[in-house]
Amino acid sequence: MVLDNVRVREVGLRDGLQIIRAFLPTEHKKAWVDYCSKAGFQEIEATSFVPAKYIPQFVDAAEIVAHATAKPHLQVAAFTPNVKGAELALAAGVHKITCVVSSTESFNQANLRRSRADSLRDAKEIIRLRDAEHGNRSVVVQGALSSAFGCPFEGIVSDKTILELLEELLKLGVDEISVADTVGYANPTQVRRLCRAILRETGDLPVGLHLHDTRGTGLANVLAGLDTGIRYFDSSLGGLGGCPNAPRATGNITTEDLVYMLEAMGLNTGIDLEILFKSREFVRRQLPDVPMFGHITDAGLPKDFQVAQSQDSIPSDKKAS
Ligand code: ZN
User: Choosing a second label site near 24 at 20 to 30 A (CA), which of 110, 240, 244, 310?
Assistant: First the structure.
């Protein structure tokens, strides 16, 4: 049975690479972008406009954006920790900017080297810049709620705190919300509860979930998110990733396993699994010392496995409601 279409956003080129010390040569990053485009991703987070003195991996951010934005049908997002980063991202021609505020002061300071109030002020200025330079609002500003399910320094974060920060971001006029379990603390009950509360406030605004599998709850949390109606998930090839400023943080949920699970459930992603598996082999060859995670590529697709049918290919009177 076809239920719905789901957007899976590959964030390996940003979240995946930010913790890897070995520099992945620009040509190889471009080849990874090519694989993403060929596999059918609608969106990738391609890079981060963070100062090279903090994360040298992204010294080629503008070049990667130029390469990715030349692909047809690919929305290209970039992480921007501050106004300067957003200026560079806009100049490079990104389609989407992710600006971020953390659930706690400690994590905001550790991750972004500024207070939460400063990050919210930055988000306001980023939206003003976008409107001034891109008056047609063609560049999407995504407001990300980082460490929304718990903080590595302050522990439990109340839903109230997250909903207050959400209200601030909505007041500023962000176009999308991303709810991030930056350090892999979330459990499915919590995801269901917080996402339902968030969706009550966001109306028609797209809401995405950014999950890490640090404690093995990643795909269970996806299912909880699906239950609330969320159809937009970040994931990373090979489960690469982590946060350089969070102790013992590990990777995002693995794209290969996520796409397999969604397709097996009848949820169409538009992503070609065979090309996705080839891209994993390509990146593995370029980063031989970096562990990659996931199950489906070890076990292989089940006998007689069929991908979900696209909603677009079904006559409208037969579509699931
Ligand atoms: Zn992350």
Answer: 110
pLDDT of residue 310: 73
Span from the CA of 241 to the centroid of ligand 1 (angstroms): 7
Q: Is 195 a catalytic residue?
A: no
Q: Whole-model pTM above 0.90?
A: yes
| Cα 175 to middle of ligand 1, angstroms | 20
pLDDT tens profile 144-161? 999 999 999 999 999 999
Above pLDDT 70, what percent of the chain? 92
User: Beta partners for 114?
Assistant: none
Distance 92 CA to ligand 1 centre (A): 23
